[in-house]
Write a structure and sequence with these properties.
single chain; alpha+beta; four-stranded antiparallel β-sheet; elongated; N-reg_PII-like_a/b; transmembrane
Length: 188
């Protein structure tokens, strides 16, 4: 006869007893769990594992501390992403472009406005396709000031429907972004 461990023999006996409608014998957790190691050794091995894991985590924390500082700095600059925007406005005359740019900077709605000449705009207006020379204003500002830029342009632009669109700046030279904050009056 082949060797059958005690817990398997008890399970087989229990199964046979249930099939013959005899009363069920009591099965304890000790009967179902068989181990070849004494329980004291298991506790000692568990304690060693806990010690090794906790020591490893402490050493990992000490070794990684320079990287935690880098991570903190990276996350703090990530909060600045999207805090700055560039707005674009088209206009037809250089004098009006200069007047609009100066007003935006004077009113602290923008830190800087670039006037870019030489655009040709092709668009539909009142059912006709038009092609006109225009200038582009590139307006650098804080995202919190974009609504002020839009309002100012709508009030001072010669067109009935002024083009004002903005995009958020994902990344940039930190001193330049700080300068934008200082000029437009947002927190640094």
């Amino acid at each position: 006869m082949f060797y059958v461990p005690i817990y398997r023999r008890r399970l087989i006996e229990t199964f046979n007893t249930v099939q013959t409608n005899n009363p069920k014998p009591e099965i304890t957790a000790v009967d179902l769990h068989c181990t070849r190691r004494p329980k004291v050794k298991l506790k000692l091995e568990f304690s060693r594992r806990c010690f090794v894991i906790s020591t490893s985590l402490i050493l990992l924390g000490v070794c990684m501390s320079p990287f935690f500082g880098l991570l903190r700095r990276t996350l703090s600059t990530m909060s600045q992403q999207g805090s700055y925007s560039v707005a674009f406005v088209t206009i037809n005359k250089m004098e009006e472009a200069k007047k609009l740019a100066a007003g935006l900077v004077k009113e602290k709605h923008a830190a800087c406005v670039n006037i870019i000449p030489g655009l040709i705009s092709v668009y539909e207006w009142e059912g006709k396709i038009n092609e006109d020379p225009e200038l582009l204003l590139k307006i650098k500002t804080a995202t919190s000031k974009v609504d002020d830029v839009i309002k100012y342009v709508r009030e001072n632009h010669p067109y009935d429907v002024a083009e004002v669109i903005s995009v958020k700046i994902d990344n940039g030279n930190p001193p330049y972004l700080k300068w934008i904050d200082e000029v437009v009056g947002t927190k640094a």
